[in-house]
Amino acid sequence: MAGAASHFEDDDSGRMITDINVTPLVDITLVLLIIFMVTTTYIVNPSIKVDLPKAVTGTEQVRTTLALTLTKDGQLYLNGDRSDEAKVAKQIAAELPRNPDLQAIIAADKVVPHGSVVHIIDFVKRAGVRKFAINVDSTAAAAAAGQSVGAAGAR
Q: Cα 82–88–94 angle (5° rounding)?
């Protein structure tokens, strides 16, 4: 009988394990995913904080080589780098021969005085740029316009 009992026992104790256990791989992958998700909030590209004025009729602008940003503290940025009028004039002089249809996109914080924005527009036009656009936040304005239209219709 003892021999018959051993007939039904599993004989796998001497075999090598050749299958891949996927569970630790999945655990490590999920932990890495969580770590990357948490750390990406700290590794965002530094950007210039500008509160753009709202306009419903604003359209998306293509990225140009001449993006000017005027912050609320009066700092001028050219393509994301801190600059001044002399550097902007030099950049325009270098770009105009290669691209005669150069367009300047001017983004100014909504608290920047109107005169400062007009000065930048005038400066860019005197430097030879004939096309310019003023950057606005069209998404927030569209949402606000939708709310005001809904409120006006409810009266």
A: 125
